[in-house]
Design brief:
By secondary structure, the chain is an alpha+beta fold. It is about 25% helix and about 35% strand. The chain has four helices and 13 strands. The strands form four sheets. Strands 11-12-7-13 form a four-stranded antiparallel beta sheet, covered by helices on one side. Strands 1-6-5 form a three-stranded antiparallel beta sheet. The mean pLDDT is about 90.
Length: about 180
């Protein structure tokens, strides 16, 4: 039994869920998302809620049951509220510029690193903060991970691209380690 899969998903006002076989489409004020589900998982809507059930009881099916429920909950939240991640650029001379659909990152390389914005994602650059927003949680997370991977924060000075609020474990320098002081 999946503890996550048993919980019903509340359909908020303004959202509309359509089920056609194993394809689920969720429409809301921010947009529309659709997804194919596994054949052993059954999805139905009753009384303004989405119920996800499993027809066969195996360990693998229980995992897919909980996964399907979590993905559907993310879709419903995405089309009604949306998702957002913020990245912070730290370092002398490091900056980001938004040009048409490309994000140009100047982060210490000889040339700017250009990243094309995927469809469904909105980028916003304010000073040293990059805001990634969209309705698909997976796509927002993947885009922010791609941007962060260009120059991850280094452990000595913390220069690079990091998530806002991310705690870094800084290492002591060579001199502090040899003298034994902090």
């Amino acid at each position: 039994m999946s503890r996550v899969g048993k919980k019903p998903i509340l359909i908020p006002a303004g959202a509309e869920v359509k089920i056609e076989g194993h394809k689920i489409t969720v429409k809301g004020p921010k947009g529309e998302l659709s997804r194919e589900t596994r054949p052993e998982i059954k999805i139905e809507t009753r009384e303004g809620k989405i119920f996800v059930t499993s027809e066969i009881e195996t360990k693998k099916t229980a995992a897919f049951w909980g996964l399907t429920r979590a993905l559907l909950a993310n879709m419903v939240k995405g089309v009604t509220e949306g998702y957002e991640k913020k990245l912070q650029i730290e370092g002398l001379g490091y900056r980001a510029i938004l040009e048409n659909d490309n994000l140009s990152l100047y982060v210490g390389f000889f040339h700017p690193v250009k990243i094309k914005t995927p469809p469904g994602i909105k980028l916003l650059v304010e000073k040293n903060i990059i805001t990634i927003s969209g309705i698909d949680k997976e796509l927002v997370g993947q885009t922010s991970a791609i941007i962060r991977k260009v120059r991850p924060p280094e452990p000595y000075k913390g220069k690079g691209i990091k998530y806002v609020g991310e705690q870094l474990r800084k290492k002591l320098g060579k001199k502090a380690v040899t003298t034994g002081g902090k």
